[in-house]
Amino acid sequence: MIKNFLTLLSILFFLNSYTNAQNQKILSDIKYQVGTGTYLSGKTPFWMRANKYGLIPIEGPFVALQASAHKEYDSTKNDLKKIRKFSFGYGVQLAVNAGKQSQIFLPEAYVKFRFKSFEFYTGRRKEIVGLVDTTLGAGSFIWSGNALPMPKVQIAIPNYTSIIGHGLISIKGAYVHGWFGNQHYTKGYYLHQKWIYGKIGRDSWNVNFYGGINHQVQWGGYSEIFKDNTFYTRDGFFSADPFVYLNIVLPFGWKIPPNARYNGYETLNRFGNHLGSVDLGVLIKTSLADISFYRQTPYEDGQMPEVFLSMDGNYSLSFDFKNEKQQLYKINFGYIDSRRQGKGITKFAKWIGKKETHYGERQDYFNHGQYRDGWAYLDNSIGNALILPNIDLVKKIKLNEYPVFTVDNRIQAYYIALMGKAGKYNYEIKSSLVSSLGSFSFRRDKNDEQFSSLISVSYPIIKQNVNLKFNLALDQGQLYGKNIGISFFIIKKW
To answer: In this predicted model, which residue has the larger pLDDT, 328 or 76?
Structure first.
């Protein structure tokens, strides 16, 4: 962490020298924020932790301190009244928790560069990937902001950019290399990630259609638990060479070179752990509210057709009201179904004659045969938080000695959230109900259920640019247990 931070400071020093030559100052127009709070609970309730980028520990009570500084792109215009083609920004955040689980994090430490519509960044940065309501939803299925950001190098078109008809068709996308580093069961492995999304319809239109796909791969690295298993590894190492990387980036079943030596698991399946989602959405603008609907369809290991025709998916419906005088600003409804996992398709699919080409092969969302840490980073799910990690479950259903990320990935979940204002107070309410069948490998005799809810109230002190925030959260059920917690937070901005 210290090495990464020193590298960041070196880059910032270089940028300062460069921009001074351009009559700009890197230390201008920076936004600062400091917050401190107290969390009072035994086990931290679910919605106090979920989608908080891994910053809130599972055990309380504790005191939190967070400080950050961010510089966004220069939006001033040049002498020709045009936005400058080149700009840069950066962000740094430090988080400290003092309590039963004392922790120090550097969740953000990055620099970014913009040239026209393109962006390059390196470091840790908070991100969400996928078509989803990022302000009030339960989280994207594949990359939700639930885990601490991992180090990345990314080149992207971060915002929808017109390619046809002056906004008639627009696209955005990214290509990424990241580092998982050392986790419990796997050391020194990598992330490959790419995504592309399109939009049909200009911003002035009342209806816009969205669609896209994201693709993530865990690859390379070493696993001590498999060092003597010749089927899964070669002396504990997963394959990582140019041919493997070609298969990671373009997983189209390339013919393996005759003299290559790969393990049996990789030649029978794929190199690395592939997963992602296919997303579709629509935005309808009315005089009362902007209405958005999204469906994210998860896939793993090439079984997309079966899953796409099943009900498995992350569904979201949001109403963003336009009347600022009303007490309710926004409401979001969510539904997640992950019970089929490629082992069953809908009656409609059977009616149209769709054959189940991968029948009997389960997808086992967020778990993998080689990468036993699962789709996680530092024990927190990278994907949707409602699929709980094994370590977060109550003692009677968790598996303490078996190397698996989740025994709880076959769920049916309902979610509702709303936000608004009552007098001078801003409020936000979230509630979820999860019904779980466990997993195909670890079935349960009956569904286990979990209800979780959060009420958040904040009071802004405008003159001092201070925000006071109070949270009350509770859990009740067989998965996460019975928990209740409160927290107080004070946030100051400059």
So the answer is: 328
Q: What is the pLDDT of residues 456-479, one digit of tens each?
A: 999 999 889 999 999 999 999 999
CA distance 11 to 52: 28
8 A C-beta contact, residue 375 and residue 383:
yes
CA distances to 10, 37, 115, 151, 321 from 199, in Å: 39, 40, 22, 29, 22
Pairing mode of beta strands 86-99, 103-115: antiparallel
**pLDDT on residue 285:** 97
How far apart (Å, rounded) are the C-alpha atoms in residues 87 and 32?
20
% the chain with pLDDT above 90: 72
Question: For the chain, how many residues are written?
Answer: 494
Domain boundaries, the chain: 2-220+272-488
Is-contact 465 491, C-beta < 8 A?
no
| CB crowding 45-61: b at 16 or more within 10 Å, else e | bbbbbbbbbbbbbbebe
| pLDDT value of position 26 | 64
pLDDT score of 302: 60
Q: Does the pLDDT value for residue 170 go beyond 80? A: yes
Looking at residues 18-44, what average pLDDT do you find?
A: 76
Separation in Å, CA 391 to CA 58, 454, 476: 10, 22, 18
Residues sharing a CB contact under 8 Å with residue 191, sequence separation 6 or more, in sequence order: 150, 152, 176, 177, 178, 179, 180, 216, 217, 218
Q: Which two tokens stand for residue 146?
A: 């639930």
Q: What are phi and psi of 47, to 5 degrees?
A: -75, -5
Distance of alpha carbon 32 from the chain centroid: 24
Q: Considering only CA atoms, which of 92, 99, 34, 27 is closest in space to residue 63?
A: 99
- For residue range 262-298, list pLDDT tens digits in order: 988 888 888 999 999 999 999 999 999 999 999 999 9
- Which has the closest alpha carbon to 438: 387, 374, 380? 387
Nearest to 176 by CA among 165, 163, 190: 190
Please check the confidence at residue 375 and state whether its pLDDT lies above 70.
yes
The third-level CATH classification (topology) of the domain covering 2-220+272-488 is: Porin (2.40.160)
CA distance 410 to 165: 43
Predicted model pTM: 0.90
Task: Please provide the average confidence, as pLDDT, over all residues in the chain.
Answer: 89
Does the pLDDT value for residue 146 go beyond 60? Answer: yes
Distance from C-alpha of 472 to C-alpha of 485, rounded to nearest angstrom: 6
- Between the CA atoms of 321, 322, 323 and 324, what dihedral angle is there, to the nearest 10 degrees? 100
